[in-house]
Amino acid sequence: MNVKITKSIGLVAALYFTANFHAQTAPKDTVQKEQKIEEVVVIGYGSVKKSNLTSAVSTVKSETFDDRPIYNVGQALQGNAAGVNVIQSSGKPGAAIDVKIRGNNSISSSVNPLYVVDGIQTFDISGINPDDITDMTILKDATSAAIYGINGSSGVVIVTTKRGKANKPQLGFNAYWGMSKTVNNIDVLNLDQYKTLMAEINPSYLTTINNPRYEGINTNWRDEVFRTGFDQNYNVNYSFGNENVRAYTALGYQGIDGIIDPARFDRVSAKANLDAKIAPWIKLTANFNYINTGLKNTNDNLGTSRGGVILSALNTPAFLPIYGSQLAIRDKDTAGNYLDGYKDGQFALNPFQSSWENPVAYQSRQNETRTQRFLSNLGLEVNILKNLVWKPTVSFDFIDVTNDQFTDGYQTSYGRQQKGIGGKYLSTYQDLNIENTLTYTIKSGVHDLALLGGNQIHEKRNSWNNFEGNNFAEGTTFFDYNTVIDNKRESLVKEHLRELSFFGRALYTYDNKYTIMGVFRYNGSSALAPGNKWGFFPGVSAAWTVSNEDFLADNKILSELKLRGGWGQSGNASGIPPYSHYNLERNSRVGPDGVWYSYQWDSSDLGWETTTDANIGLDFGFLNNRIKLSIDAYKRKTKDLIVPISFESAGIGNILKNIGSMENKGLEFALNTQNFKGENFNWSTNFNISFTKNKVLDLNYRPNIDVANIETVGANLVRFTPGQAISSFYGYQVSHVDSQTGDLVYKDNNGNGIFDPNDRTIIGNPNPDFSFGFSNNFSYKNWYLDVLVTGSYGGEIYNASRFDLEMMNDFKNQSTAVLDRWTTPGQITNTPRANSPTSQYVSDRFMENGSFLKIKSATLGYNFLSPFKGVSKINLYITGQNLLTWTDYTGFDPEVNAFNTTNGVSGVDYGTYPQVRTFIFGLKANF
Question: Is 853 within 8 Å of 9 (Cβ atoms)?
Fold first, then answer.
């Protein structure tokens, strides 16, 4: 259920001030009992005492997400770290999670953060089992991320997984089961309302609808398409060890049946972490992960005409049945046999356009992906001399993906036209990293120095081998390349990339008061042309721990005060293909029938995108750190944006060029409070909020970049242009509906007296003014309650689904919003008449407020301590996710992005798989 956000946003302020008030009025005796514990924070290639931290870093512990039904590590970050914006852009099981750290800093390159899982670097976190994670550290500024060079410009997330403990063997088991339903619904016209509309659009439509063959049919497509989803998750782990060898092993399975068939996600994961002391001066560390995931896809982010199931469920008229056999009259040939579309087991034909099939027909299309992944590393820690440690590490990431697609030649109209059509798409990704680091530490009196130097050799090999064809023997139910009759084609692409880098860091602290850190990385890549292959990425930061000064030694209220500041540079190489400085041709298929075509033009002057970041921060602690507040302000400028340009008049296709720059700046606040600590009752609160502004500064060669095409109207929604926010919406502005004609009247923005394309302007901004997360954790004896609230304010959503649901220009069913359409002269309304040609333009008519406040999750649980012999604890809990949303958005859910695979684009809804409300019951046991 979506609740209007009007007058509700004040709830956040009320909750915040309540938490803050109780934190400051905690009993004094509980404050005095607190003991100060030195906390260590993981950073790139090492760790540092939190008191000496000079950069913008956030940490997310596993207890903040381990009771939630999540399948992706990105979901665990949502609402739990300032400056980290996470959008689960679709409710589809296994769907990609959009994670941005401090905004969007590229147009065509990836802005996903770099993940470092137990020392293994990857941009693909999918498949990692969240149950194996201990904590995650987010490196947000370039000072902390510069040590990762060309991979660190979008931030770094360091993931630490569980490990064995000496002399503490433990067996753990946890499982949960749950059900899911849609969060919100979109109402469409009933059959009588639909017939009235069709009579206005085209009377011949009504003649077809009233054909006797459809008599008595009134299909509820929502009931036919939507269902109750089911979640299940099982994990078992065993950790053991002694002073010399420690190990952690885990095996897990997760299965999610989506609310729209055939969507399903399955994952089997196996993990082993090993720590061994080979000799007093040498240690071995090994991490092995095997992940096997299966994904059945339901086509979304598509219009009805392109096979989009969600919009088809809303657009398909109720007078149509699912199967041709359900018609009152079924057509036959002269021999008395049913014609195609009327046979048993065949989906009913759409009488207006046979290629526009019903949603159940679209659901029958097979699109299944199976991924096997082996992620591992092996490292040594060698104490060469006192305080001098050498760490050689080898890591290997191997991913094998098989995607099978098939539409059989019997059930659907499209399948019969093709006599069956499908493909098999095989991909492999191999990532090899060899790293060596030397660390020297020395502590003498008030001096504390740590030096790090290292190098990395990185090799990547990728391949794509695709098989396609159509026309299969009758009765074929899956794709088999050997049985393809027509258009049999195979393609093969291989890539090879090598990178070499050297990096270093110096960290010096004087008297636990003054800290300075300098880092650098010198990167080289085979993707670039000679002369441009190398780049240097430095960073420097400093901190002053004011609270350790003598003049604050006796302060009873202020327990921590630290000033931080830093500057650094990092790079983004994801938009650079491996052979960017060559003219390349590709063959359309393997074999003699292939045709060579130009694939890539020489981009010898291409370089990587470089982000320069400046950050200042303040850390406060009050009442022995019962109240902790961190404030950060930053400014990031990314230059040399990589964008493809073309010179069509000269017959030259896309050439990659560094053509522009953009800017992000913002403020972040993170407040953590222990509101009450007692023998039986405890209450803590975490609140974070991030304010971000961004804009494109300049673009060379081309004044604008237009993307995000909506095929229903044949136009792009998004424009990148200097001076405007990233991913701004571009189109016409509606003035009013003409009360005499019922047509839309648009604003004449250029003042020339006519309606023309030059009247288009920036009509919306999807980037929120601020986003926040707010969690409260309560415990009373063995009971506990955890509640996470997330929200966003100021961003806009382009609800492009309304093109298909409100345009009223053909035979598709429409939403109930069109009941307010203009019908008679003199009528005042905001909805134009049926079949108005003026409604078929991209305009601000479908621009909506995307602000929301959401109870993201709530967990109620009970711990049974030592209930049986050999059982140390059993935890039973229930969790609700996406429980309640306050928003003015009229779509399924404001957390949406139909173009999540298009870099730089956000805030578009176009037939996107709905978010779900999930309730689970869980069990955890430790033995």
Answer: yes
The amino acid at residue 819 is L
Distance of CA 273 to the CA centre of its chain: 28
State CA 810 to chain mean position distance. 35
Q: Which residue has the tokens 């407040």?
A: 671
Pairing of strands 114-117, 156-161: parallel
At 292, the amino acid letter reads N
Q: Are strands 2-3 and 871-887 parallel, antiparallel or unpaired?
A: parallel
Mean pLDDT of 309-337: 95
Give the whole-angstrom CA distance, residue 714 versus residue 705. Answer: 16
Residues whose CB falls within 8 Å of the CB of residue 919, separated by 6 or more in sequence, listed in order: 178, 179, 180, 878, 879, 880, 881
Among 68-72, 731-735, 883-887, the minimum mean pLDDT is found in: 68-72
pLDDT over 80 at 589, yes or no = no
| Helix, strand, or coil (residue 1) | coil
Q: Model pTM greater than 0.85?
A: yes
707-720 pLDDT, tens per residue? 999 988 889 999 99
Which residue, among 578, 385, 389, 614, has the nearest Cα to 499 in the 3D structure? 578
Q: What is the DSSP letter of 767?
A: S
Going through 44-146 in order, the beta strands assigned E by DSSP cover 46-49, 57-61, 84-87, 98-101, 114-117, 120-122, 133-139
Q: CA torsion sign, 314 to 320 to 325 to 326?
A: positive
Residue tagged 């931030």 (tokens) = 155
- Pairwise CA distance, residues 569 & 540, whole Å: 9
Distances (CA, A) of 329 to 133, 215, 332, 356: 60, 9, 10, 21
* Whether pLDDT at 272 is above 60: yes
Per-residue pLDDT tens digits for 207-225 = 999 999 999 999 999 999 9
Q: Is pLDDT above 50 for 30?
A: no
End-to-end CA gap in the chain:
41
In tens, the pLDDT along 608-618 reads 899 999 999 99
- Whether 461 shows a pLDDT value over 50: the answer reads yes
Q: How many CB atoms lie within 10 A of CB 870?
A: 7
Q: Please check the confidence at residue 300 and state whether its pLDDT lies above 70.
A: yes
Q: Which tokens sit at 605?
A: 């002057």
Rg of the chain's alpha carbons, rounded to an integer? Answer: 30
Residues 6+ apart with CB under 8 A from 279: none
Q: How many residues does the chain have?
A: 927
Does residue 545 contact residue 513 with C-beta atoms inside 8 Å? Answer: yes
Choice between 763 and 307, residue whose per-residue pLDDT is larger:
763
Tens digit of each residue's pLDDT (9 = 90 or more) over 772-829: 999 999 999 999 999 999 999 999 999 999 999 999 999 999 999 999 999 999 999 9
> Residue 161 in contact with residue 287, Cβ under 8 Å?
yes
Considering only CA atoms, which of 911, 792, 799 is closest in space to residue 856? 792
Closest to 217 (Cα-Cα) out of 365, 340, 328: 328
CA distances from 309 to 94, 139, 224, 277, 356 (A): 17, 39, 11, 56, 11
pLDDT band, very low/low/confident/very high, at 2 (cuts 50, 70, 90): low
The 3 state secondary structure assigned to 693-743 is: EEEEEEECCCCCEEEEEECCCCEEEEEECCCCCCCEEEEECEEEECCCCCC
Residue with tokens 């302060």: 555
Give the per-residue pLDDT at 105.
87
**In contact, 808 and 818? CB cutoff 8 Å:** yes
Q: Which residues contact 343 (CB under 8 A, 6 or more apart)?
A: 324, 325
- Report d(CA 609, CA 569) in Å as an integer: 10
Contact between residue 488 and residue 500 where contact means Cβ atoms under 8 Å apart: no
What span, in angstroms and rounded, lies between the C-alpha atoms of 518 and 529? 29
pLDDT in tens, 34-59: 445 567 888 889 888 888 899 999 99
What is Dmax (Cα atoms) for the chain?
A: 103
